Amino acid sequence: MAEFLTHGGLTARHGFFTRQGGVSAGAYATLNCGLRSEDDPAAVAENRARAARALGAAPEALRGLRQVHGPAVVEAGTPWENLPEADAMVTRSPGVMLGIITADCAPVLFHDAEAHVIGAAHAGWKGAVSGVLEATIAAMEALGAGRGRITAVVGPCIAQASYEVRADLRDAVGDPRFFTAGRDAAHFQFDLAGYCLARLGAAGVAAEALGVDTLADETRFFSHRRRTLAGGGPLGHQLSAIIL
């Protein structure tokens, strides 16, 4: 069965899936849900179907995006023929599952239980800096959500101890609170989850983080940074999903 984590801050059905419980092989083993890898498309389709069924939904309920590290948000209703180029989705339609894929970036799931509105966002540092979290909140509000009622959870992502960056990224983020000293004067450790939590809090949304490091746990998570440190090669992605 597709393995997933949950958080009490979300009352809608949801799952931060690990890489366990799928059918992919090799570097993609086993629950690779990435739509743009060179994995066997049939295996990816089965993996995504297993994830949907694990949350009690039909495979066709699961929506996906062509994620580009930006602030665009789309409303998910009927299935789309081509993947929208965006990094977040919202819906108030029961039975529609919002699915974000990540491999170190932060998956963020949102819910307003009173208005019955959900959202899901892919927040790498570029997307977070460009405002994808705030854009998701605004899109939920357009569907009737109330900012003070929305809760959000930041799922498994690369942790500060694992996320070494250079000064250009630190300068692009522009907030020294989320950086600690690195191995030398040219390197810093970035707290992506903490940065996302701060932006959500500043936007008036109650948010928490799972606190799970994707780079450190190779058994359960794919990691872009781990792949880079190993010299490259294929990369799988895990899924985070929410459904009313």
UniProtKB/TrEMBL annotation:
Keywords: Hydrolase, Metal-binding, Transferase, Zinc. The keyword Cytoplasm does not apply. SUPFAM superfamilies: CNF1/YfiH-like putative cysteine hydrolases (SSF64438). Pfam families: Cu-oxidase_4. It catalyses: inosine + phosphate = alpha-D-ribose 1-phosphate + hypoxanthine; adenosine + phosphate = alpha-D-ribose 1-phosphate + adenine; S-methyl-5'-thioadenosine + phosphate = 5-(methylsulfanyl)-alpha-D-ribose 1-phosphate + adenine; adenosine + H2O + H(+) = inosine + NH4(+). Gene3D superfamilies: CNF1/YfiH-like putative cysteine hydrolases (3.60.140.10). InterPro entries: Cu_polyphenol_OxRdtase (IPR003730), Cu_polyphenol_OxRdtase_sf (IPR038371), Cytotoxic_necrot_fac-like_cat (IPR011324). NCBIfam families: peptidoglycan editing factor PgeF. Belongs to the purine nucleoside phosphorylase YfiH/LACC1 family. This is Purine nucleoside phosphorylase. The lineage of its organism: Bacteria, Pseudomonadati, Pseudomonadota, Alphaproteobacteria, Acetobacterales.
